[in-house]
Amino acid sequence: MGVKVKDLQVSVKGDKVHLKGTPGSVEDREKALLIAGNVKGIAKVSDDMVAKDDKGKTRYYTVVSGDTLSKISKNMYGDANKYMKIFDANKPMLSDPDKIYPGQVLRIPE
To answer: Which CATH code, of 1.10.8.100, 3.10.350.10, 3.30.1120.10, 3.20.20.210, is assigned to 59-108?
Structure first.
């Protein structure tokens, strides 16, 4: 999916996945976590990755029934038209702005 994590190690125990490695950026770290967490059957992601530019200020949003990216954008930014910012931050997990589903966790950039 184009996410760069050097020496990535993935271990799965039941419904939990653990990631270890060195991501190329905070965005790569967050996308790796989202990819792992959005796999069917995974309930929890444990993270031992640290990116050099990590400042720890990223927000996440769990999609609920009836959500659209525009609705989420209105709630998070006060502007429904900024939905593409959320879409772009979640590529390649999202292939279309209209294809999100309840339970999916999205990265919400500043």
So the answer is: 3.10.350.10
User: Per-residue b/e over 2-18, b at no fewer than 16 CB within 10 Å?
Assistant: ebebeeeeeeeeeeebe
Rounded to two decimals, the pTM is: 0.60
- Beta carbons within 10 angstroms of residue 91's beta carbon: 11
Query: Is residue 109 very low, low, confident or very high in pLDDT (cuts 50, 70, 90)?
Result: confident
Tokens 């589903």 correspond to 101
Do 19 and 29 contact (CB within 8 A), yes or no?
no
Nearest to 90 by CA among 71, 69, 75: 69
β-bridge partners, 37 = none
Are 84 and 97 a contacting pair, CB within 8 Å? yes
The token pair at 108 is 């919400």
